[in-house]
Amino acid sequence: MQCRQVDMTKQLKIDFVSDVSCPWCVIGLRSLESALGRLSGEIAAEIHFHPFELNPKMAPAGQNIVEHITEKYGATPAQSAQTRAMIRERAAGVGFDMRMDEQSRIYNTFDAHRLLHWAGLEGKQGELKHALFSAYFTDGSVMSDHETLISIAGKAGLDPARAREILESDTYAAEVRRRERFFQEQGIHSVPAVIVNDQYLISGGQPSEVFERALREMSAAD
Fold first, then answer.
1. Does the pTM exceed 0.90?
2. What structural domains and CATH numbers belong to the chain?
3. Per-residue pLDDT for 8 more than 80?
4. Which end of the chain is more exposed for a tag (fewer CB within 10 A), N or C?
């Protein structure tokens, strides 16, 4: 007789609904990945990224972040600066260099989401998501500029020529709109939204310890 090792690792499905211009989405993703790293051997998950636009009507040129936050939320410049400082501290805690300041701008991210949809088909979605976050929040790149997006796609291991073809057409536009509507209809109106096994929701850029505890509890419940 032979004894064979049994893999007891629990497989989870994780849908990560987020926007490229959402700083809490960076923090949430890094925290989630950290939690999964600590749960290695106990829980495994493949993260699927889905589109959410915080500012779908934003013009391609974008808007200054302080002006935008004041108009959208009524925050004063001092409050905005305090929030940015707090976000930078939280981001540093998960190993991410967040460099937003009063000169940063908010951009339309629809084309970035179209590339992310394509990257999912190519098995490179995670790589592109991280590359977009770094390009925007660390390097201050213009997320609505096609040449910038093509360069980021190439750095993520995707074909720049194909990225250009997508951006110069309406390829995947309908698919992105459809996914956005789907999650809105499921009650998702803020991000990040982390949906586990199509039934559990973890909202916000939670600390890794919160994700770890929640994932362990959800795994045990299924």
1. yes
2. 10-221 (3.40.30.10)
3. no
4. N
Q: Mapped to the 3 state alphabet, what secondary structure does the chain carry?
A: CCCCCCCCCEEEEEEEEECCCCHHHHHHHHHHHHHHHHCCCCEEEEEEEEECCCCCCCCCCCEEHHHHHHHHHCCCHHHHHHHHHHHHHHHHHCCCCCCCCCCCEECCCHHHHHHHHHHHHCCCHHHHHHHHHHHHHHCCCCCCCHHHHHHHHHHCCCCHHHHHHHHCCCCCHHHHHHHHHHHHHCCCCCCCEEEECCCEEEECCCCHHHHHHHHHHHHHHC
Amino acid at 151: S
126, 47 in Cβ contact below 8 A? Answer: yes
Write down the residue that tokens 């979605």 correspond to.
125
pLDDT tens digits along 119-178 = 999 999 999 999 999 999 999 999 999 999 999 999 999 999 999 999 999 999 999 999
Residue written as token pair 């990945």: 33
Residue 203, Cβ density class (10 Å: 0-12 exposed, 13-18 middle, ≥19 buried) = middle
